Amino acid sequence: MLLTISEAQMGPSPSDAECIFTLLGSGHNERIQKLSPTLHAEISALKNAGRLSPEYTTLSPCSMCLGAILLYKIPRVVIGENETFLGEEELLRSRSVEVVVLENEECKDLMRRFIQQNPQNEDIGELQ
């Protein structure tokens, strides 16, 4: 998770994901920079890592990322925090994916600051 937080601090958004086997892939959320609500960090990390790697993400996965996690047969998802956005954790569990929520304060702080500076929720199904 420390690597994921470090990447999130350097990236354009604190929503960040890593697929770790050693480090097979990492990804940043680029939805604002590339004007596409589908460019989530989990999707980028999965694309870079491939299948069967555990995923570490600063934020709970949304519905779209859940589908990608299941498609790539990710066995374990470690979530930095789910207070900012409670994603599809129960559905992941129902599909035999191990879900670990850390409730990491640094992840919460990163998201709070980002939301204050960038109040856009369209990629999580909440239009403003």
Automatic annotation (TrEMBL):
InterPro entries in the record: CMP_dCMP_dom (IPR002125), Cytidine_deaminase-like (IPR016193)
Domain CMP/dCMP-type deaminase, chain residue ranges per copy: 1-99
Gene3D superfamilies: Cytidine Deaminase, domain 2
Single annotated GO MF: diaminohydroxyphosphoribosylaminopyrimidine deaminase activity
CC terms in the record's Gene Ontology section: cytoplasm; nucleus
Pfam families per UniProt: dCMP_cyt_deam_1 (PF00383)
BP GO annotations: cytidine metabolic process; cytosine metabolic process; pyrimidine-containing compound salvage
Protein name stated in the entry: CMP/dCMP-type deaminase domain-containing protein
Organism name: Laccaria amethystina LaAM-08-1
Taxonomic lineage of the native organism: Eukaryota, Fungi, Dikarya, Basidiomycota, Agaricomycotina
